[in-house]
């Protein structure tokens, strides 16, 4: 590995990333052409669906909030070198715990502000617990966090569905539409009646990403996390208790994922629904990979991904295309950025990010 | 339940485990060469969709399977290029491909959703099919299920008894030694990643042309199978026989879920459908236990006699991954 970085290395990196984005768009366009769809009409429809009116633009921000929260959490687990694929289950558990809290308080006696605060705290506790279970499986059971996390994702889904169809079912008939909505007093206030955009949720998400950035970049704790992530054996020999740091990063990430679940329950759906995590956990992993595991770009890239997701919802109606187009675009983008990073390393004669 | 129904049910278990056998053995071969192909979940979905679309267009089931294998090989070639040539994280590229290929299959498969199409027919083996019990179980299946039986034996023999198999094991355990003995590590790793991916690519059409014939998008019920195949690979300790055992166990649990469903109508069907997944993780916990440090230290504290028994039991179920799995090879 070269000890001094070349002066032009930042410039070439940007150049390679720009090339990757262009190539990804070309590939997505080719996919559209291959299916006989008009590419520009499709992109136009996505743009219109994401920012074409105040209504959809606020939906984009609504989708940005949970994505930003999970991405913030994942930056911590990535810093310490962990693949927290169990994040989907952690969102789900956060939603379950928040619902549980609100159901227990749902007598109308508790002050709504206090009730929602308790629901948020419960959601964070639920997500953190589920994440630490992955951590415990890894530390004490030798189960790789990828498989432990995946398994617990399925357990979380099963638990969620069991609650919706069992103990928490709607009076009368249980259905896929979820539990009975909470008392309106316990809905997180939104900017107006039609919108689902809750300013409190947005502020919480922005505060979270800023705090995580400061935690990783500006604290001794963050420095130790980085040390463990770079070389766990060396960090352990230098006196950093490795497994405690792994557990702590799982707990932080899980708490933020759980908070995302609590936001979905209190601000967006006002009840527990079967697919409450909506794939935001996996999307957050993609965002974190795309920004190279650094916090600075996380917010704008997460906003862009949220816009793609919301914009694609209209595709089946406007152009009879499947809304998974957004996933195709996001996936090709991340794939090409990874490949470009590798190519750059190879061409510049540097060692790329090698590892498992 | 009568014996006849039970036999038919178990024959169904053998057939429905077929794709998992192909996918997990394909992955085991790749991982034995030192590469983790995490794209499995998307790879299976894309090859299921592509295989069905090809069979629909060409009216040929054979072409469908060939297309599935080609898609599996092509996706895995990206994994190989990224991790071997570009030395990027295998987990990162595999995970992205797992999601990308899944969405690609839903997007490209939209026009053929729900269409009726060709499917693989049952090919009972004359003579053998009339053997009592065994005939129903083993010899009234389709060609690909027979192929899955053959693959278990062939892969086991190849890895354990042949010279190229020995080199394959060397690639994952001690690539430097394999290199010193004249093996082209990078080229062979490419080969086994693509070959393993092509085998896994047959799993997709086995679903879309036989077990769950047709393409139904998100409700096809294939999402998650690739992740299970990866877990089964670990469960089976990277050995084809044990990997196959894991696949049959999983299929059996799924079938048991269906049977129990009729016995306990009060339990939501979704719960029993996902039950095998956490059970799989629980078994992973057991087979990995011996690798954890605290188990070793607490074992050392036990008195002589029970320690021997526990250590022996742990060793019997314990699995260890190929030593160089996931690490890039540098020739210097």
Low-confidence stretches of chain B: none
- Compute the gyration radius of chain B: what is it? 21 Å
First-residue to last-residue Cα separation of chain B: 64 Å
CATH topology of chain B: ABC transporter involved in vitamin B12 uptake, BtuC
Largest sheet of chain B: none
H/E element string of chain B? Answer: HHHHHHHHHHHHHHH
Most extensive interface: pair and counts? A-B, 58 and 57 residues
* Helical fraction of chain A: over 70%
Strand content of chain B: under 5%
CATH C-level category of chain B? Mainly Alpha
Percent helix range of chain B: over 70%
Number of helices of chain A: 14
What average pLDDT do the residues of chain B reach?
A: 87
Give, in order, the helices and strands of chain A.
HHHHHHHHHHHHHH
Number of domains of chain B: 1
What average pLDDT do the residues of chain A reach?
87
Q: Report how far apart the termini of chain A are.
A: 18 Å
Shape of chain B: globular
Radius of gyration of chain A: 21 Å
How many helices of chain B? The count is 15
- Strand tally of chain B, please? 0
Describe the structure.
The complex is a heterodimer of chains A (356) and B (332). With 356 residues, chain A is mainly alpha-helical. Chain A has 14 helices and no strands. Helices cover 71% and strands 0% of the residues of chain A. The longest helix of chain A has 30 residues, at 112-141. Chain A starts with 8 loop residues before the first helix and ends in a 9-residue tail after the last helix. In chain B, 48% of the residues are buried. Chain B has helices at 3-32, 40-58, 61-85, 90-108, 134-138, 143-161, 163-173, 175-180, 185-211, 225-235, 240-263, 269-274, 276-288, 293-301, 304-317. The mean pLDDT of chain B is 87. Chain B contains 15 helices and no strands. Chains A and B meet through α5, α6, α11 and α14 of A and α3, α4, α10, α12 and α13 of B.
What are its keywords?
heterodimer, A: 356 residues, mainly alpha, ABC transporter involved in vitamin B12 uptake, BtuC, 14 helices, 71% helix, globular, disordered N terminus, B: 332 residues
């Amino acid at each position: 590995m070269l000890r001094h970085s070349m002066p032009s290395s930042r410039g070439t990196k940007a150049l390679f990333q720009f090339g990757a984005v262009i190539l990804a768009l070309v590939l997505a366009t080719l996919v559209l052409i291959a299916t006989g769809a008009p590419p520009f009409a499709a992109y136009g429809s996505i743009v219109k669906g994401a920012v074409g009116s105040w209504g959809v633009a606020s939906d984009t921000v609504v989708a940005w909030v949970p994505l930003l929260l999970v991405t913030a959490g994942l930056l911590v687990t990535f810093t310490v070198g962990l693949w927290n694929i169990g994040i989907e289950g952690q969102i789900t558990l956060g939603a379950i715990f928040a619902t549980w809290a609100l159901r227990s308080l749902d007598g109308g006696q508790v002050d709504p502000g206090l009730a929602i605060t308790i629901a948020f705290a419960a959601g964070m506790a639920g997500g953190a617990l589920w994440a630490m279970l992955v951590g415990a499986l890894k530390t004490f059971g030798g189960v790789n966090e990828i498989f432990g996390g995946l398994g617990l994702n399925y357990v979380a889904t099963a638990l969620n569905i069991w609650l919706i169809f069992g103990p928490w079912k709607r009076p009368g008939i249980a259905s896929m539409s979820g539990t009975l909505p909470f008392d309106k007093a316990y809905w997180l206030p939104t900017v107006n009646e039609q919108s689902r955009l809750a300013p409190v949720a947005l502020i919480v998400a922005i505060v979270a990403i800023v705090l995580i950035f400061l935690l990783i970049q500006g604290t001794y704790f963050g420095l130790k996390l980085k040390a463990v992530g770079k070389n766990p054996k060396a960090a352990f020999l230098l006196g950093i208790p490795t497994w405690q740091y792994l557990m702590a990063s799982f707990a932080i990430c899980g708490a933020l994922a759980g908070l995302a679940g609590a936001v979905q329950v209190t601000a967006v759906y006002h009840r527990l629904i079967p697919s409450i995590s909506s794939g935001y956990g996996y999307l957050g992993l993609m965002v974190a990979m795309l920004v190279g595991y650094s916090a600075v770009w996380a917010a704008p890239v997460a906003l862009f991904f949220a816009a793609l997701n919301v914009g694609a919802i209209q595709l089946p109606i406007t152009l009879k295309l499947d809304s998974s187009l957004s996933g195709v675009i996001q996936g090709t983008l991340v794939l090409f950025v990874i490949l470009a990073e590798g190519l750059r390393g190879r061409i510049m004669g540097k060692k790329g990010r090698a590892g498992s | 339940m009568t014996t006849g129904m039970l036999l038919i049910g178990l024959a169904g278990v053998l057939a429905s485990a077929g794709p998992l056998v192909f996918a997990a053995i394909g992955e085991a071969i790749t991982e034995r060469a030192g590469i983790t192909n995490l794209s499995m979940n998307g790879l299976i979905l894309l090859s299921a969709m592509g295989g069905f679309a090809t069979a629909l267009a060409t009216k040929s089931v054979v072409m469908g399977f060939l297309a599935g294998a080609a898609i599996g090989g092509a996706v895995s070639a990206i994994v190989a290029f990224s991790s071997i040539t570009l030395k990027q994280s295998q987990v990162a590229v595999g995970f992205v491909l797992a999601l990308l290929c899944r969405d690609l299959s839903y997007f490209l498969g939209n026009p053929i959703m729900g269409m009726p199409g060709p499917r693989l027919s049952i090919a009972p083996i004359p003579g053998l099919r009339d053997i009592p019990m065994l005939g129903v179980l083993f010899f009234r299946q389709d060609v690909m299920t027979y192929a899955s039986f053959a693959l278990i034996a062939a892969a086991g023999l190849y890895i354990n008894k042949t010279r190229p198999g020995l080199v394959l094991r060397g690639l994952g355990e001690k690539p430097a030694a394999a290199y010193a003995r004249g093996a082209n590590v990078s080229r062979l790793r490419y080969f086994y990643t693509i070959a393993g991916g092509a085998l896994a690519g047959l799993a997709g059409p086995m679903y879309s042309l036989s077990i769950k014939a047709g393409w139904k998008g998100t409700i096809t019920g294939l999402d998650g199978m690739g992740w299970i195949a990866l877990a089964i690979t670990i469960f089976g300790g990277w050995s084809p026989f044990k990997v196959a055992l894991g696949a049959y166990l999983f299929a059996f649990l799924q079938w048991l879920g269906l049977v129990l469903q009729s016995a306990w109508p009060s339990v939501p069907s979704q719960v029993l459908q996902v039950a095998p997944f956490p059970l799989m993780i629980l078994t992973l916990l057991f087979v990995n236990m011996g690798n954890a440090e605290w188990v070793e230290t607490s074992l050392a504290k036990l008195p002589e006699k029970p320690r021997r028994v526990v250590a022996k039991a742990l060793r019997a179920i314990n699995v260890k991954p190929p030593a160089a799995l996931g690490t890039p090879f540098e020739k210097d």
